[in-house]
Specification:
Elements: E1 4-5, H1 6-12, H2 18-26, E2 30-32, E3 35-36, E4 42-43, E5 50-52, E6 55-56, E7 65-70, E8 99-100, E9 109-115, H3 118-125, E10 133-139, H4 145-153, E11 156-157, E12 160-161, E13 166-170, E14 177-182, H5 189-196, E15 201-209, E16 212-213, E17 222-224, H6 227-236, H7 280-284, E18 287-290, H8 297-308, E19 311-314, H9 315-328, H10 336-345, E20 348-354, E21 357-362, E22 365-366, H11 374-384, H12 387-401, E23 406-409, H13 413-417, E24 423-428, H14 431-445, H15 451-467, E25 482-485, H16 491-506
Parallel strand pairs: 9-15, 18-23, 18-24, 19-23, 24-25
Antiparallel strand pairs: 1-4, 2-3, 2-5, 5-6, 7-9, 7-17, 8-9, 10-14, 10-15, 11-12, 13-14, 15-16, 20-21, 21-22
């Protein structure tokens, strides 16, 4: 096989975009023949042993691009620690590295693209490339012409006005059917647009992505794209064929956009948390989720964000990003003064290619995929246990929350970060249940581990958090928090309870 750039090989192997591959390389997670790989290095996969986190790179014999007719009731996820069905249950013969392109919520059916080409997946899902997606919605009633015009011109949602959509009525039976085309990637965008104009949806399906049509493919079935379909998708996002380089190579260096309308640098460096409050009601309408590690905060938070139409912020990602910066700078995590100085100086931000799936950047580089290493697991509690570091991140978290109401999950959210929130939730679970959930996350991320090791890490995290005086037990929760023991509850029941509490506090 020919010698190729390592980033391209990793993208072909399903490890994300080429920029994500660069992050893996700089984090030291990639080796060639047992030594750490270098950024920009080239290798021949036929003769060199390339590994990521100790796992050998497996390249498909040829690039695979499939379509799946996703049925309603399936999650677009590789793993669900609450036991719900995912689309991978429908793909028993999936080749290594097969990943989905974008998401559909659990209740939406229709066209889902899957590919082993990480760069193609990245570009098709990225808002920069403005790939049009076509949906068909069965409605309870025929919408008024003014409703259609509102959808075409843009609808005001919690996270801003939507881009103009292409909308037309179809002759659906037995209910009115609406065709709507969008080119953004906001969470549950079509459902939220229709809800904003009071159009009641009975069924929602995606029927096309760019020039590729779902056609007559039966629900739950898959098929490979034709050569013409695949080539049309590649051309749409500036890529050549599967065996040729991109035709717009310069796009690889374009920075990911940040959706935060409040730049961190606009806040004085040593400002108190209260200095970034711009709208009291914005903070009050946010939802705060607290609890110990692996209690379900992120899973519940993402589900609530989709249910309520609010953005999701996982503060744990911010602490992990700071820890990565500390490790890369060679600073002793026990040196509180040096760690604090670094955290105050770093360029830390978040963006949302899919609003319920936040991404974190350091100095403009997406590092999200590099935040689950064993070294970060061992070190993050030391970093987060430094009071001055928590002060700095509280300031930055409140800056994110000042933009618009959000769902924020982490530690001390209700007691310190979003004290104004009318709805606060504290999730708890036994350490065994939490360890099983974390094990599922680690396995999905590709880490080689086992239950006993994860249980030990969970206990050590709890001990470190207790030493750092962080709220991990119900008696430490905010006095007005809704406390939920998730041991014996499914995620749907937890989300229902939280949703009811939020609506009771903020509606009417």
């Amino acid at each position: 096989m020919p010698v190729e750039r390592l980033q391209k090989l990793l993208a072909r192997g399903g490890f994300g975009s080429r920029r994500s591959a660069e992050t893996l390389i700089t984090a030291g997670r990639v080796t060639i023949d047992g030594r750490p790989a270098l950024l920009g290095e080239r290798a021949d996969p036929a003769t060199a042993r390339i590994e990521v986190d100790g796992r050998a790179l497996s390249l498909p014999q040829q690039t695979v691009v499939w379509m799946l007719h996703k049925p309603a009731g399936y999650l677009v996820s590789a793993f669900d620690d609450w036991g719900r069905k995912t689309v991978y249950h429908l793909l028993p013969d999936a080749p290594p590295g097969l990943r989905y392109v974008g998401r559909l919520d659990r209740d939406t059916e229709g066209l889902l693209l899957l590919t082993t080409d990480g760069e193609l997946a990245h570009r098709l899902a990225h808002p920069r490339y403005e790939v049009w997606k076509t949906y068909e919605a069965d409605l309870r009633e025929v919408p008024h012409p003014e409703v259609l015009e509102r959808l075409r011109s843009g609808v005001q949602l919690e996270d801003g006005v939507t881009a103009p959509a292409r909308v037309q009525m179809l002759s659906g039976e037995p209910r009115p059917r609406l065709s709507i085309e969008i080119r953004e990637g906001k969470k549950r965008e079509v459902r939220r647009m229709l809800a904003a104009v009071r159009a009641s949806v009975v069924r929602l399906a995606r029927v096309a992505v760019g020039p590729v049509q779902l056609g007559v493919l039966a629900s739950g079935e898959t098929r490979a794209l034709t050569t013409e379909e695949e080539q049309s998708l590649r051309a749409l996002v500036g890529l050549g064929t599967a065996d040729q380089p991109a035709t717009v190579a310069a796009l690889d260096g374009v920075a990911e956009p940040s959706l935060s309308s409040i730049p961190i640098d606009d806040v004085p460096e040593h400002a108190a948390p209260e200095a970034v409050i711009t709208t009291t009601d914005t903070l009050a309408r946010s939802l705060a989720i607290d609890g110990p590690t692996a209690s379900g905060k992120s899973v519940v938070g993402r589900a609530l964000a989709e249910r309520l139409g609010l953005g999701f912020v996982d503060t744990g990602l911010m602490y992990r990003a700071c820890t990565l910066a500390v490790i890369e700078a060679g600073i002793d995590a026990g040196d509180a003064a040096a760690v604090t100085a670094l955290v105050r100086a770093i360029e830390l931000d978040m963006f949302w290619p899919e609003p319920s799936a936040p991404r974190v950047t350091l100095s403009g580089v997406d590092v999200t995929s590099a935040l689950r290493t064993p070294e970060i697991e061992r070190t993050v509690s030391q970093v987060s246990g430094i009071p001055e570091v928590r002060d700095e991140l509280v300031r930055r978290q409140r800056g994110l929350a000042a933009r618009s109401p959000i769902v924020m999950a982490g530690r001390d959210i209700g007691t310190r970060v979003l004290t104004e929130a009318r709805t606060k939730v504290f999730l708890e679970a036994s350490e065994q249940v939490r360890a099983r959930r974390r094990l599922g996350e680690e396995v999905e991320s590709g880490r080689q581990t086992n239950f006993d090791r994860v249980l030990d890490e969970t206990r050590r995290r709890d001990e470190a958090d207790s030493t750092g005086h962080r709220a991990i037990r119900r008696e430490q929760a905010a006095t007005d928090a809704l406390v939920i023991d998730t041991d014996a509850l499914g995620i749907d029941e937890v989300v229902e309870r939280c949703t009811a509490a939020y609506r009771a506090a903020n509606e009417g």
